[in-house]
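User: Predict the full complex structure for these chains.
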Amino acid sequence: MKKNDFSHSRREFLKKTGFASAALLSFSALSSVIPLGNGKAGNWIGPREAEAAPVKEDIKDKLKATFGNRKIEMSHVTMKAPIIAENGAVVPVNISSDLPMEAGNYVKKIYIFVDNNSNPFIASVDLSPANGRAAFSLRIKMRKTSPVRAIVETSKGKLYGTTKIVKVTIGGCGG
Amino acid sequence: MSKKISILLKMLVFPAAVMLVTGTLGSMTGAQAATQSGSKIEQLTQSMSYAEYQKRYEKYYGNFTAQMAENGNPADFLIDDGKDLANKVVGSKGKSCASCHGKDALKLKGAATTFPKYNAKLKGVMTLALQINTCLKNQMGAKPLKYESYDQLALTLYVKSLSNGMPIQVSIDGPAKPFYEKGKIAYYKRHGQLNFSCAICHVKYAGYKARSNLISNNKHHADHWPCYRLKWGKTGSLQRRFRGCMKNMRVKKPPFQSEELRNLELYLTYIDNGDRIQVPGMRM
Amino acid sequence: MPQGIGKIKIRLPRTVRKGQIITVKTLIIHPMETGLRKNKKTKKKIPAYYINDVSVYYGDQLITHENWSIAVSANPFMSFDLKVDKAAPLKIVWKDIKGGIYQKTVQIEPR
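Assistant: Here is the predicted structure of the three-chain assembly.
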């Protein structure tokens, strides 16, 4: 996970306005004119602890390692996923393809990737002609807003794919 | 020399000005809060109709939670377990729910529609979860189940699922009236560090956004609980959701099944009178 | 949520005709711990515990095999399509990294 790095200008802004805000805070604390209500101080959410960052794999390397230099054609695959996911821990994804599923010419594999996950690989599915139709759905975890990729490999070695961006919002409401 | 003095002056004057502004602002909000903290109900107008809200919801989120609930809701497992629990003999009197309410407690069909309701012994509002625990304690001689525990939720969900598809008929006549009023006051009362009330969000600003969230309309809030919530990754009750909202409002959270939360549940369920019960629900 | 690990639900359409392509929906209760999360109280990492291998057998033929990573949601839901051409049991097997094996069989009876 990438650490929070505030931009330079933000830092400067904080320095400059620090004096004014300090004055504000001390004033409100001393005079207690601003009503603070009966909430506990412990309810304030503190800064997040620095987590041990797992090594982030790049999606381009991952795709290259899986498919080599083969070209991925952006057609024949449709993906259904929400535009906005309020919770990245459960994002439903439905992938289907109109490619034929006959003996000798069928969809061999479906891959799902999420670019911004620390491990972009989500799942791979081996299908067979007995499935009748190349369709698959799964609920996946997403760390943050990211494109979701679905890539389909046919038994003849051709690759088809599609991408869709899913926005993951860490909701303000919802206890 | 004169330059130095001017800088010094500026340094003195600027904070003083800030203090003045904040001081007046602070006292203003203080006065407002004082008028609203009484038992008076704040006059708020509904931001938009439910149909309009639903249109916005579908435009923003689509219907994927409904789709997910249809495909496979993890809370379905609790209903199956609740059925087993209803037939299980527990307690010193050697009874199960089934010994009074028939096999699989099927006689309780439709019972959940009238909850929460007034109970004379309790001198307060009886919710379904509390009723189950009271039954366990008094009729079966068993230990009451802990609120929000798996078994408690499973039993509540099972009993409620027997009334699936039936309209809610909560009565607020007679002795229940003062408790309904209390619940309404609690819904409209501003409290907490952020000086919010439930109604501010769910009546006045329902259908608008709070950062990236669409604030929900208070209609159809209470007809599908206990439900599976994606954020929790768990099944939970309506009161757990109340407490979650209270935490965000920086209010001291009352314990489960306390009088305050029960009154609030009565008020919110009464709004939904006539809606069909559909448990288990699935929310974001 | 360790309660009820390995409980399985498989949903099929009510009536199945021969030659029809049906969608099979499955749900299993499993925590799917990633191994990256920390226990908030003890500040220790929760060890990884997830399902990584799913197989579907129709009759005695392996028709679908899946590899999952840590990024599949807790209580995994999965659905796939199936062409019904015989009356045979449909067996689905989940395997997790701690050696747990969960399976369920449903009979498919086309009319």
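Chain B has two domains: 39-62+171-274, 76-161.
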